[in-house]
Design goal:
Helix content: 25-40%
Number of strands: 16
CATH class of the largest domain: Alpha Beta
Strand order of the largest sheet: 3-4-2-5-6-1-7
Low-confidence stretches: 1-8, 405-442
Mean pLDDT: 84
Order of helices and strands: HHEHEHEHEHEHHEHEEHEHEHEEHEHEEE
Number of domains: 2
Radius of gyration: 22 Å
Structural class: alpha/beta
CATH superfamily of the largest domain: P-loop containing nucleotide triphosphate hydrolases
Length: 442
């Protein structure tokens, strides 16, 4: 099936998009008047019942772009149902996301916009007991937001019935593919009714995403509000060349000297995130780490403390790059460049959201020069280099292979950087389904 042509923009006001009065009141209560470009284009198409392949920069409001029309259609369906005895609640909409943080964020949006409509939604992910989730499902829900691994756990135990789902949303689909969830996704698709509306949202349109869209979507409307792999225009991007052994000192200096109060820092590995957070605390900078090996409670506490400005520095791995939604986050720092250039876009997309100004800094040592070239090639522009006084790099230092995680594998491989993209290390015999998602996101 071929993909549809790009959709022509529609009026900017929410009142012109065809949403119900109840939803418009809720949107107004949240202080929104004009829809973002992705909302302008996606909402009328979803309301019309068509499949959608949508790409937008992170932070552009795409969550509301599918939650608002989804709620409208559920409301319309309920209002048109025959009067009389209320039918038992069935799952009518399923939203699949790659990480726990993103699942919680999307469910929060569903509850916020659906306030007063009477629909029940719930979030399903691993790292927490499955029993409360089973009990909630037994009570009946209308909308489920889930990560693939825990969703498959429910399906295998027979605690979830997906036979009534009429709307499927794949949010951050490219991230799910990067994390190795494609087989899990296909298992979920096999359990859904063949006749349904499919909405695929992705920050980037890789060839793999195109292949998935061709299999999943039926004559979709394609929406692209920004050039592939672009960064927000209001995010300043600066590179500070520095020796690897002096990165931590430079990071502490930048935060302290500029009195930055809320800084998101990215590392490549979980162990590196823990170590850096501990070191920053020794520098009298209140810091916490967040990554896939942390318990859900620890991740929630760290993120809540960061949002409340109780934690000054949040150190994260790429697992968190798609799920963190912090209003007006001023600073993102790449303590280490990502092995995959596209992840740079997702990392710095945490700042400069919804038209705000943002500040992105990358601390780059000699080992990372090739990674920096890959990023600039992806962005089709050179990033400004600024050497910080007293932190000038030693030009005599020779580059060394970048080790990716505890396994000690070099970033260089027969297939280049993407060879080491999987968070599970070298390819071995396929692990069991019940263990694999726990090591990634669910």
């Amino acid at each position: 099936m071929g993909l549809g042509a790009p959709f022509t923009p529609v009026p900017k006001s929410f009142t012109e998009l065809g949403l119900s009065e109840e939803l418009l009141r809720t949107v107004a209560e949240q202080g929104y008047e004009e829809a973002t470009p992705i909302q302008q284009q996606a909402i009328p198409v979803v309301l019309d019942g068509k499949d959608v392949l949508a790409g937008a920069q992170t932070g552009t409001g795409k969550t509301a772009g599918f939650t608002l029309p989804l709620l409208h259609r559920l409301q319309q369906e309920r209002d048109q149902a025959p009067k009389g005895k209320r039918a038992k609640r069935k799952i009518r909409a399923l939203i699949l996301v790659p990480t726990r943080e993103l699942a919680a964020q999307v469910d929060e949006s569903v509850q916020t916009y659906g306030k007063g409509l009477g629909f029940r939604s719930m979030v399903i992910f691993g790292g927490v007991s499955i029993v409360p989730q089973i009990n909630r499902l037994r009570q009946g829900v209308d909308i489920v937001v889930a990560t693939p691994g825990r969703l498959l756990d429910h399906m295998s135990q027979g605690t979830m019935d997906l036979r009534q789902v009429h709307t499927l949303v794949l949010d951050e689909a490219d991230r799910m593919l990067d994390m190795g969830f494609i087989r899990d996704i296909r298992k979920v698709l096999a359990a859904l009714p063949s006749k349904r509306q499919n909405l695929l949202f992705s920050a980037t349109f890789s060839d793999e995403i195109r292949d998935l869209a061709s299999d999943l979507l039926n004559r979709p409307v394609e929406i692209q509000v920004a050039r592939r792999n672009t960064t927000a225009a209001k995010v300043s991007q600066i590179v500070h060349p520095v020796d690897k052994k002096r990165k931590r000192d430079l990071l502490s200096y930048l935060i302290s000297a500029n009195n930055w109060r809320q800084v998101l820092v990215f590392t490549r590995t979980k162990h590196g995130a823990n170590r850096l957070a501990e070191q920053l605390c020794k520098d009298d900078l209140n810091a916490a780490a967040i990554h896939g090996n942390k318990s859900q409670g620890a991740r929630t506490r760290a993120l809540a403390g960061f949002k409340a400005n109780k934690v000054r520095v949040l150190v994260a791995t790429d697992i968190a790059a798609r799920g963190l939604d912090i209003e007006q986050l001023p600073h993102v720092i790449n303590y280490e460049l990502p092995n995959v250039a596209e992840d740079y876009v997702h990392r710095i997309g945490r700042t400069g959201r919804a038209g705000q100004m943002g500040h992105a800094i990358s601390l780059v040592c000699v080992d990372e020069k090739k990674l920096l070239r890959d990023i600039e090639k992806l962005l089709d522009k050179s990033l400004e280099r600024v050497v910080v006084e007293s932190f000038e790099p030693d030009e005599s230092i020779r580059p060394e292979p970048i080790q990716n995680g505890r396994g000690g594998r070099s970033q260089r491989g027969p297939r280049g950087p993407r060879n080491n993209r999987s968070p599970r290390g070298p390819k071995k015999a396929a692990p069991s389904r019940r263990r694999r998602p726990r090591s990634t996101s669910s």
